[in-house]
Amino acid sequence: MKSIKHMVIFSLKHDKGSPEERVFLEDSKTLLHPIPGVKDFQVMRQVNPDNDYDFGLAMEFDDKESYRKYSEHPAHVDYVNQRWFKEVDKYLVIDLEAL
Description:
By secondary structure, the chain is of the alpha+beta class. The protein has helices at residues 19-32, 64-72, 74-87; strands at residues 4-12, 39-45, 55-61, 88-97. The chain is 37% helix and 33% strand.
């Protein structure tokens, strides 16, 4: 059984430091962290000046099946459709499997 580290780095359409930015980040944790299978959920700010993205979400899953169930969970699907696609300017998804 190999764990999966799921990371998404992104920038928002909202102004930096705006209330909308803060609410999006808070809501991301509130809505996604409770989904079954999610472990070690983190919301992070990008600090590398050589990178164009502003934030990151990271979480772990015990295995591919847990990750699949998360991806298909109604709360995740709703978040992606109602918030992510409307408020995120650009993003990159990174899914890593432990060796």
